[in-house]
Amino acid sequence: MSAAGFHGSKYCWMNGSVIPTDEALVSPMENIHLGIFEGIKAYVQGDVMGKGELSIFAWKQHVDRLWRSAEVNGLTIPYSKTELLEGVKACIIRNDYDENTYIQPRIWPKERWTGGESHVVVPVWPFETLLGRNNPKFAEERRFMVSSWRRISSDALPPQAKSWANYLNSMHAIREANRCGYDNAVFLDSRGFVSEGTLACLMMVRDGKVITPPVTASILESVTRGCFIEFIPDLGYPVEVRDVTRVELYASDEAFLCGTGGECTPITSIDDIKLGEKYPGIITTEIAEYYSEILAGNVEKYINWLTPV
Ligand code: PMP
Known about the structure:
Elements (H helix, E strand, L loop, with lengths): L10 E4 L2 E4 L15 E2 L2 E5 L9 E4 L1 H14 L2 E2 L4 H15 L5 E3 L2 E4 L6 E7 L1 E3 L16 E8 L16 H13 L4 E5 L5 E4 L3 E6 L2 E4 L10 H9 L7 E3 L4 H5 L3 E6 L3 E4 L2 E2 L2 E2 L7 H14 L10 E3 L1
Parallel strand pairs: 6-9, 11-12, 11-19, 15-16
Antiparallel strand pairs: 1-2, 1-9, 3-8, 4-5, 4-7, 5-21, 7-10, 8-9, 12-13, 14-15, 14-17, 17-18, 19-20
Bound molecules: 4'-deoxy-4'-aminopyridoxal-5'-phosphate.
4'-deoxy-4'-aminopyridoxal-5'-phosphate binds next to helix 4.
């Protein structure tokens, strides 16, 4: 694959060193599909829509989850968390990035089909944010459906681990949504309660309160969700973590996704039922603006969530 074929990223970190992405070749016999990964973002400081110095958001939370995912799947990561961080920083610097950058450590078993020592590769590439002041991407319409696929439950696969295998569940839901003319989908869990989006967690607003399903609703323990639960009360809105029914979601004033990839994504409608009076919702917009400032290092209280590159 050419570098241009991998989001234009020229260098990645592989098994301990920064190498040209074109040289990061593995045999098709490797068990990458049995691996785990993490999705992390580094944002431009000062203004997330600008260019300049980068800081990694919530590095510690992401890397701790990576190690937990490895443990759940019996994998051993042959580097320390500090070595991985130094590798990521070196890789971003070598690529000369001064724009928002996505970081995706991928880990898979070296020899046997599962467990034991692992390979580690960390591709990094720029992404376009939907956050920031008056970003037109933020206000785009997004029509969702409730998927007929249920979110994987912990009696089949561990939803809390970020394993590639779990994403086939998401792929089926996205394909179904697209086939039915929707942009994306919301999963219910095996009990019939709202779980999450296909690639992000879900929050809804009702009567000035932000409500999000619990970890026991088969969600991925989202780093972003954890941060949102912590900072949203600063804006004067209480956050409730509890089971949510499908009909409550239909009746919500606003709903949005939260995740590293999804950032803070407003949802226009679910099953063709328009949510609330105004799109994007006022509270969703306020949350997204505050989150943008936190990511850009402009909120002193949360500066410790940022790791300068
Ligand atoms: N759920 C799923 C299925 C996801 O893929 C993601 C993205 N990692 C999330 C939730 C959000 O998690 P995080 O905030 O840690 O990115």
